[in-house]
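Entry 14. Structure prediction run on the chain below.
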Amino acid sequence: MATLRLTVDGTPREVDVDVRTTLLDALRERLEVVAPKKGCDHGQCGSCTVLLDGRRSLACLALAVAHDGAEVVTAAGLGTVDAPHPVQQAFLDHDGYQCGYCTPGQVCSTVGMLDEVAQGHPSHVTADLDPGADVALTDAEIRERLSGNLCRCGAYAGILDAARQAAGGAR
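Output returned:
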């Protein structure tokens, strides 16, 4: 067993976990933070995506003990009902969800993607691979950067529109 200290959605938390516990299981089962979802539990679907120390991360693949002292932001910690985060608002505006199961991971991944673009990180489809170069956030860029997040319902058109709006390029 190990005692972890995490800041989850802005709140300092302490939890005792078995050293084999994933961050996802620590959040959901021990801390009752249910925004990140357990989809595949193999890092293939993206439903468990959170922002871990500011970077998007698959919580089902992260051992909790490796992140003692980390800051974890879930989709629930990004905004409020009265003041949603711009990405959350964009998902609402463009119906970027159907059943909603993947939505928290999609939202966190979109927030992380926008931060990566702002920092000049290239993707597989970026033409200019120079670090720090301006990245044009085309539909191809958005699709590539969000390709690790799957939606079983097929709400990809709304998700693309939401990501485009959040990036400032609403159509």
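The radius of gyration is 16 Å.
Filed with the rest of this week's runs.
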